Amino acid sequence: MLSSRPSTDTPPRAWRLVAIASAGHTLACLVLLGVVAAEVAGHSADRVTLGDVVSVLHSLVPAQAALAGAVTGVVTTVIALDALGGGSGWSPWTVAGLAGVATAVSATGGHPGTGVAAIGAALHTVTAAVWVGSPLAAVITLRHAGEWSIFLRRFTRVAFWCAALTGVSGVALAAAFLTHPADIVTSDYGRLVAAKAAVFVLLLWAAHRLRRHWVAPAISPTTHVPPSVSRRRGVRHSLSLLCAVALAAWLAATPLPA
């Protein structure tokens, strides 16, 4: 999946994807910062002043998280653009680290819990992002059967631990916010948690089937899987993972049980 190769050996299309994604992340963080400042100030977003922004940065964690996300996004965009121009021999691991920090900060800032709960939310979000984002990035950037073979061989090991950590942290977070077992069926939050758990189990089952019918032949030296087949199966797998992301976003916007 990731390697220690410098930017001169990393496909330009990969750096182009990083530049677009990080620029989009930066814009989203800045918009979020403006919306938070407008809500606190009590007027529309087009009337936000620098003073409003400074005020929320002093007092609100979500605003601080949005600013931190914007800063890491800018840095990542600059690195990707420099790598596209044949610059400083950047390693993909540098970008992965920055993306992990941005994701963890965003999750922590937007989570209702503090302390251990916030750390759990960060772990849950980062591992889920790697699990979901890696095959999606592969679909966009990989072109040859050899590239798919290398990616799948590495990703299967990473995906196992990401799925395990996502599941464990998700259960821990649900237990922290569902104070009574009845909340699972009596509250919107609990029902969404149950739906998300069901989707998670289905994803594990689908991943097991994909490993048998796609990954194993693709990484075997004695069989050949055309890139078009890998791309098609990668798209299907990514779409199924994005269903879980949609549920997670819905869950994040749902009030906790009283």
Quick take:
The protein has 258 residues and is mainly alpha-helical. It has helices at residues 12-41, 50-59, 61-84, 92-109, 116-141, 145-177, 183-186, 188-219, 227-252.
The portion of residues assigned to helices is over 70%
The gyration radius over C-alpha positions equals 20 Å
Termini distance? 43 Å
Which H/E pattern describes the elements? HHHHHHHHH
Mean pLDDT: 83
| SS content category | mainly alpha
Count of helical stretches: 9
The number of domains: 2
- Largest beta-sheet characterization: none
Give the amount of beta strand, in percent.
under 5%
The total of beta strands comes to 0
- Low-pLDDT segments, ≥5 res: 3-8
Would you kindly provide a written description of the structure presented here, covering whatever features stand out?
With 258 residues, the protein is mainly α. It has two domains: 7-110; 116-258. Helix content is 79%, strand content 0%. Helix 6 (145-177) packs antiparallel against helix 8 (188-219). The longest helix has 33 residues, at 145-177. The protein starts with 11 loop residues before the first helix and ends in a 6-residue tail after the last helix. Mean pLDDT is 83; it is low at 3-8. It holds the Pfam family CopD. It is a multi-pass membrane protein. InterPro entries: CopC/D, Cu-R_CopD_dom.
Which descriptors would you attach to this protein?
9 helices, mainly alpha, 2 domains, 0% strand, 258 residues, CopC/D, flat
Task: Break the fold down into its secondary structure elements and pairings.
Layout: H1 12-41, H2 50-59, H3 61-84, H4 92-109, H5 116-141, H6 145-177, H7 183-186, H8 188-219, H9 227-252
Helix pairs in contact: 1-2, 1-3, 2-3, 3-4, 4-5, 5-6, 5-9, 6-8, 8-9
